[in-house]
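Before the break, one more example. Copy the sequence into your notebook; we will annotate it together after we see the structure.
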Amino acid sequence: MPRGRYSLHDPHVHTPFAEEHFHCAPGPSGWRYVSQLTTPAGDHRGSVDLALDELGRPIRMELHSAGWQVRGAALDGVTWVRTDPTGAHATEGNVRAHAFTGTSPAFLVATTRLLRLTPSASATRVRLVALTDPVLAPRTVDQSWTLLNREAHATDNGPLTVDEYQVTALDTGEQHSVYIAGDVVLAAPGIELEDLESPPSAFA
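Here is what the structure looks like once it is written out:
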């Protein structure tokens, strides 16, 4: 069960805004990721609880940020309920999309589990509902993912396979790279892996 800490920052101005303390693990029904977020000053900022089925679809997602809460799952596309900080108002949403995304590294791992790309495969298009910080406002985005390279690196615990993905935003054409080993993000825009207590889990 990997356990560690990511630092999150604005990918454009590089201002840090959170640290994400996480643990995750594959299980008989898929994969689960749980984290708590704190501000740079150490105050509680939010939380992530994401469970995937064996095909990489979100069977349960719960996000908290700035008093807002979103619960969602793959149902007729993806369906969610967003609740305001007072708890007095809840709005439902549904989009013909494949999964969710957001600032948490969990969503990058989840997308790779959904797409199951191989280095020889061409680019694959995916539609996601992005839940944007800090109020978890939903926005539908279209991306293209390509697995550019898969490379094994020697470590004290045996070889570590690192996948390099190229992600393209189809509305702007902007591209960036994402590096993932198993179920841990090593590097991505706005994300740095600061501490890892145990090796990443290897998916079958």
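DSSP finds one helix and 15 strands in the chain. The longest strand covers residues 137-155. Try to locate both features in your own notes.
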